[in-house]
Every structure is written in C-alpha cells, then in structure tokens.
Predict the structure.
Amino acid sequence: MKTLLYILQKEFIQIFRDRTMLPIIFIIPVMQLLILSYTATFEIKNVDLIALDNDRTSTSRELINKFSGSPFYHFNGYADDFESAQQLIKSGKADQLLVIEPYFERKLIVDKSAEIQIITDAINGSAASMMVAYAQSIIGDFNKNIIIEQNPSQQLGMPIEIGSLFWYNPELDYITYMVPGILVLLVTVIGMFLGSMNLVKEKEIGTIEQINVTPIKKYQFIAGKLIPFWFIANVDLAIGLLLAYFVFNIPVMGSVVLLFTVASVYLVGILSIGLVISTLTNTMQQAMFISWFFLVIFILMSGLFTPIESMPNWAQIINHANPVSYFIKMNRMIMLKGSGFMDIKEDLIILGVFAIALFSFSIMRYRKTV
Amino acid sequence: MVSGEQIDSPFTIHHMSVNIQIDSISKKYADVMALNNISLSIKSGELFGFIGPDGAGKTSLFRILTSLLLPTSGKASIGEFDVVKDYKKIRQNTGYMPGRFSLYLDLTVEENLDFYASIFNTTVKENYELIKDIYVQIEPFKKRRAGDLSGGMKQKLALSCALIHSPHLIILDEPTTGVDAVSRMEFWELLKKMQKMGMTIIVSTPYMDEAALCDRVALMQNGNLLAVDTPNNIVKSYKGSLFAVKAYNMHKLLDDLGSLGDTSQVFRFGETIHITSTINDDKVYMESVNKQLIDKGYKDISIHKVNPVIEDCFLSLMDKDVE
C-alpha cells in the first residue's frame, strides 16, 4: 500500500511538472466542449434555393414566396434555364432547385392538378432528406391553401388532428442532445490517450528497465498508472458538467453521484484499453496511432453523431462491445431524462463487466520481463 | 528468514556469499544467436569485467542475470537463487544500472533517489553510508532535474539509485560509455571502493583500457566467450612477438603488411600498425619486414617490438573466432 502511494506521488509530480500536459488535460477538453457543442448539429438552416420558373404567373410566384419566406430557406434567385441551374448546383451555390413547368397555374385551375420538380444536392444523404422534408412541408402547406381557395364552401376533411409534445428536450435543441455525448467524448479521449501514452513513455525513455528490476508488484505499478488519469478524467467531467450548466443551461436532471459512478466504472475500462495498447507497443507514436484507430471507431459508432438505430444490423451487434455507446446512452439518460439507478442498471452492469475484464487483461499483458 | 533479516542491516549483508554460476546459457532472438552456450563463474567479492564490442551479447547476459530476460536454454544462479525461479529474491538483492540512463528525467536528483529508496522499502537516510562517497558529489545539484545533469553526474546518480537498497551484487552495463575521461577514472575508483566494502561487481565496457582495472575479465564477441582470465594472464598468453610499424602511407601499408610472409596478424592500433611474427628470431624478422617495405617504395619506416596489451589479445582472439 505504501509503495502504491509512492508511485502515485511520483506520477502526479511528473504530470504536473509537464508543461504540455496541463493544457492537454484541462484546456483542450473545455475547448472541445465549447466548440463541438455549437457545431455538431444536424439542423439545416439557410438552404440555398434557386428556382427555374417556366410559368411566371402569380401562382408560381406565390409558391416561390412560400419558400423564401421560410426560415430554413435562403432564396438565391431565378435560373434562366436548366443548364445554368445545373451549373449552380454543381458549383455548390445552390442546394436545391425548384422547377416549375409552363402552364403550371392553368393546369392547377383547369385540370385541378399540376406537377413541380424538386432537385436536391444529395451528397450528404441525411442533409438531403431534411431538405426534401422541408420542401414537402412547404408544398403541402401551399396545397392546402389552394384546396381551400378553390372550394371555399367545402369543409376540409381532417378528422384527426396531430399535436406533438417533445419530452426532455422540448425545443428540439441539438445542443442539449449533443452536450452529454461530447462530455463522454472528452473523458474518453483523456482516458484512452493518456492511459496508452504513459506506460509506453516509460518504455521509450527506458525508465521501465530500472523499474522492472525493483520489487514493485505488477498491480501496484498498473494501479499507479491508472489512478492519476482516472482522477483527472473525473475532474474533467466535473468541469464539463459545470460548463454545461453555466454556458449551455443544461443541468443534470438525475443524480450527479450516479453519473460519476458510471463515469468511474467506464474509465476503468477505457484506461485499461489504453494500458493494453501500451503493453503491445514500443513507442509513443505506435501507441498514439493504435489508440486513434480504436477511438475513431468507438466514437463514430457510439451514437454520438448518428443514431445507432439507423446503423446496419451487424454494426448494431458490434456496438454491444463498444463501451463508449453505453456511456453516452447512460449519460444522456441521467443528464436529460433524470433516469435513476434502476433505469440504467443493465447497462451499468455490462459496463462493469467490461471494466473488470479489460483491467484483468491489461495486468496479464504487462510483464516485467521482456 | 535469515536472509530476510540480513537485508535490513547494511553491515551484515556484504558477508553474504554471492557466487555467480552461469551454466550453458544461450539466448536466441528470431534467427540471431545473442548468447551461445555461455558458461562461467564469478566469485563473491570479485570485480568482474565483460569486454567486447557492441552486439557481443553483454547486455543480453546482464538482462538474464537481472531477471529481465529469460534465457532460451541454460541456467544461471546468484548465490543460492536461480535467476528464473527466484527472480523476486534476485531483484531484492541486486542493483542494476542499465546501459541507457533509465531514471526519470523529469524528477529531480533527490526525488529519483527517494523514489527508488521507497520502492525498495528503505530510505536514503538508512543507507546513506553506502552512497555517501558518490552522493556528496551530486548533492549540490539535488534540486536539479536529472535530465539537466551532465553525463558524468547522471552516471553517479544512476549508481546511487542502484545502490540505495544495499544490494550484494551490482551489475553495471557500460557505465562509462559516453562519459569524459576524468569522470571515467573517478567512476572506476568508486567501483574499487565499493568492492572493498564487500560488494560483488559485474561491469561491462567497450574500453579495453578499463579491462586492466578488473580482477578478471571475460572477452566476448558475437555471443561467444573468447577468454576468461585475469588481465595479466590474458596478456601473457599472447602467442608470438608483436611489433609496431609506422610509415608514410599508412592506408596502403595496412594492405601491404597483410601480404607479408611470416606474419600472422595485422591490426591498426592507434597511430601504428601492430603485426605479429610467426618466426622466433625477432631481429631477422624486423630486417626482413624493413627490406620488403623499402622494396615497395615506403619511406620513414619505423619498426620496434612492443609488449602486447589486452586489446592486442582481444583482436587476435576475435580474428581466430571469425575463422
């Protein structure tokens, strides 16, 4: 026990003496949270729309006005012909093109039906479907007005009215959704990177050789490496939660104690992954690349940016082995929904099993002989 | 239990016998034979040197002795302890100073020493007597980070840390490589002092002149032991008469001397070339060499007989080993 304290003392001296380490630990996470929370949003505003109006009547203009009046659209003018419209989309100056055929107004009145065409730049599939949805709702609205105009006497047949309530995030604010996930992200980056760097640093500099001939026990050395970063990552989480509260006005609805319990269990697992990486590598550069590889996969699959439900089946199965997705899920539940222990029990147990398994594996992998 | 009590007291431990037995040790990395069936014994209290170029296998052997590396085959023991089975005992009783400076560069002199003392369950105060001679030289810099010390100072700090738990045996891997000449001499004086205190010392060096300072030396090359003896005996066993030759065009001279008759070895040695005669009459040999060189157009030729030093013996043994 005393030996462990000496090792911890040494580790903390080294961490706080390292001038590049302090900004990495305390400033970068804050920047990450502040920048990513504002930028990582799925909402699409200011869709650049151009219109190719071959009708040029009051009805066609009315339809275009509907678009330009919408907060989601920015009307970028009329195209002269289809070619030039195509060119505008190609060069990225327009996201969506509205094509109105000749005799649009006349067809509407005479035939009671007319067609228009919406062409959307679909390089980003999810953004494109959002834009199409916006367009559809505007056209739907326009449609309804026409029906009422043409049949003023007739009551509109709408027996079911839909009223929506958005729970936990009533304003559908993406920042509220993103912040808990980004908190997980920064805790993960700190845990995994620093965990994987630390042991391999001793290898690279050669200090491990002197340590290995001492009677230090494996678990003491490993614990001495884990505890400081476990502690620092929790401090980072606390800073992040304070920022979430004061900057983004997102309080923790559930129990803060429960949140830190989950984080603590999670960090044992993440730090152990880092340690396993550093036992497998010989230089900090190798450790960095391998941690980066795992981090990218873990994070992109975690449901932070894209919902897990929309991933293919095999990816969802793999995700059962992704600790990041468990923590993001639980963190969102605790922070936004105020879920209690019983609600997250199962996920927490799985995370605990991960942590124990990974920690044992990292101790097994670390050998004092070469 | 008896040995456990001895560890606590720095004054009794050095009477403990640490005869070292190395028995047919081999170490193979992939397809390189780092150590080839090495057997030798080192007596308790001896200052034993391993001499050999880089890649001779010195570091591998030291790592096996300090339980950092497992041998491919063979056995080794320190005192009654086997280096594989009783590695815990070995680590408690052995001080190791790796070839590369392996202390924490970002910790100060004092912090490094305190740290190593505490993980061996002791304190600097308890064993101060043991490291005093060395430590007084670095004490003025005790608040300085290890990374900011000079090469010689670093070696002294590393030695202090290797000694802090009062081991019976210390193993030093090339402690004087990259250290200036004055610090090297100081360092060897310290080793002699520690030997007088009863410690067994194993040291490796690429410098031949340091070999003479050891009680016994082992000459190593390519994982093989070429010779194990006292420095004196190694020099005495040199076969043939040795001559130093000097002339105007040294580069060409080396080739031409190689094609001389009655000559067994030709080595560049500092500013001269050492050649060994295979005939008994030195005078006849010298005249014949002189004549042949004049015929080849050399000027300012100087030939004189010299006494062999360890380096000559080593070079000649190396040559035979390659054959």
